[in-house]
Amino acid sequence: MCTLEKSDNFFILTLIGDDHEHRLGLHLIDSLLSVLSQVNTQSINGSSALITVACSKFFCNGVDVLWGQPSACLCLHQMVKSVRSVIAALLSFPIPTIVAVSDHAAASGLVLALGHDYVLMSCERGFLYTSEVDLAMTLSDYFSALVRSKIGGLSAQRDVLLRGMKVKGEKAVRMGIVDLATHDSEESVVEAAIRLGDSLAERKWNGEVYAEIRKSFYSEIYGVLGLVSKTIVASCKL
């Protein structure tokens, strides 16, 4: 499940779960989509930001599939399609989105993190990891497009996808995956995300324009997700 809090300038979405791994099962995905829809409705005029957090051993440890069960492959396919809807919702948001990764983000957990505009991470705990090459699984089309859109440099993309590298905070910054890595406590990642969210919300951007500029910037992933762009001119000031 997840919870939502609203301050003056930003929303905080917190992943919660009994196993503290925040695996993306149908219940969590449905909860995420419901909360994202709620934030989208309340922030249609911009002037806000979304901050996603999860304080436990894992930020998110991928999809919730019982490997070895007869229905595992069918369940995995369903989960991958459902995560696609979450990424499409995040990438269509009318406000800036920030994720505070205070610990491990693996497989679809990394996908969830990359769906945000800004990724902040702890230097002291956790890593980013794409497990598909180790699990002998191919990648979904939107995951590959998201990696190409969000991770700078072919060598960094190769190391994440083809080496299954477990990337910690400082290295993630150097590889162009993470925007900021903090050296202090786990809580400092969330505090840094809140400071960034405040500064972005103060700009009071037009929400529809912000979303459309994002679409044009990440055109490949939007094409894969089937999201349609539109032209908006909210002001004619020169």
Automatic annotation (TrEMBL):
<dbReference type="InterPro" id="IPR001753">
    <property type="entry name" value="Enoyl-CoA_hydra/iso"/>
</dbReference>
<dbReference type="GO" id="GO:0005777">
    <property type="term" value="C:peroxisome"/>
</dbReference>
<protein>
    <recommendedName>
        <fullName>Delta(3)-Delta(2)-enoyl-CoA isomerase</fullName>
        <ecNumber>5.3.3.8</ecNumber>
    </recommendedName>
</protein>
<dbReference type="InterPro" id="IPR029045">
    <property type="entry name" value="ClpP/crotonase-like_dom_sf"/>
</dbReference>
<keyword id="KW-0443">Lipid metabolism</keyword>
<dbReference type="Pfam" id="PF00378">
    <property type="entry name" value="ECH_1"/>
</dbReference>
<comment type="pathway">
    <text>Lipid metabolism; fatty acid beta-oxidation.</text>
</comment>
<dbReference type="GO" id="GO:0006635">
    <property type="term" value="P:fatty acid beta-oxidation"/>
</dbReference>
<dbReference type="GO" id="GO:0004165">
    <property type="term" value="F:delta(3)-delta(2)-enoyl-CoA isomerase activity"/>
</dbReference>
<comment type="similarity">
    <text>Belongs to the enoyl-CoA hydratase/isomerase family.</text>
</comment>
